Amino acid sequence: MSHAIKVATYNIRKAVGLDQRRDPARILSVLNEINADIVTLQEVDRRFGARVSALPLAMLAAETPYIPVPLNFRPAAIGWHGNAILLRKGIEVRSAAPIDMPTLEPRGAVMAELAVNGHPLRVIGVHLDLSGLWRRKQIRALLAAIDARPLYMPTVMMGDFNQWSDSGALSELAFHHHRLVRTPKSFHTARPVARLDRIIVSHDVQVSAADCHISALSKQASDHLPLWAEIYIG
Predict the structure, then answer these.
(1) In total, how many domains does the chain have?
(2) What's the CA dihedral at 57, 63, 69, 74 to 10 degrees?
């Protein structure tokens, strides 16, 4: 029997809102509004110094039902190059690691293989380059990382792909068993004109609904609106 879960992705801009205030509590409130089971975040860690998380771990534990997938590269960070995966408590992590891919900018991707109520699911969180040439190389590296895994799993890739159109670098998906979920434009929050944020699923993942999460808080919390999708696995 298939299992329904809700997934989401959100570029939180280091918790700095349109009012230029860094407000992690506001981001956490938006995450609670979305009420997803699995969330990929981009720009979650500050870029310089100790790469401290913009979402303090104690606050995340106290105010949300989420725990970060352990990557454990820096003691004060919850992600890798700003990418993190949050799970509702009770979802099992079977493995987790960054994905090695070519980069021009300090961006990247992380992958977790999970068990959700006994159903296997691979989740990849990404933040790709501004350069189309590098994005194409990075998407090829993501697909190669999937192919290199010893076991097949239904897969969801989510994040800020920095890709305006469905063609270009995203055309690489045509040669693989993945498809774009149709989602609205999510950037810029004040006036969404670009579909930079994406949710991509393997062909055996059913999608029943997908949209931006728009609320009074999400319209102020970041320059990206969060995306979500309801999917069925198993």
Answers:
(1) 1
(2) -10
**Could you read off the pLDDT of 133-186 as tens digits, one per residue?**
899 999 999 999 999 999 999 999 999 999 999 988 898 887 888 999 999 999
pLDDT averaged over the chain? Answer: 92
Q: pTM (2 decimals)? A: 0.95
How many residues would you count in the chain? 234
175 CB contacts (<8 Å, ≥6 apart)?
A: 143
Q: Is 81 exposed, middle or buried (0-12, 13-18, 19+ CB in 10 A)?
A: buried
For residue 215, pLDDT over 90 is answered with yes
Cα separation of 212 and 210, whole Å? 7
Judge whether 219 and 188 are in contact, CB under 8 Å.
Answer: no
Rounded CA-CA distance 205/36 in Å is: 17
Q: Residues 14-47, buried b or exposed e (16+ Cβ, 10 A)? A: bbbbeeeeebbebbbbbbeebebbbbbbbbbbbe
The model's confidence at residue 55, banded by pLDDT at 50, 70 and 90, is very high
In this predicted structure, the answer to whether residue 72 has a pLDDT above a threshold of 80 is: no
Domain containing 50 equals: 3-233
CATH, residue 205: 3.60.10.10
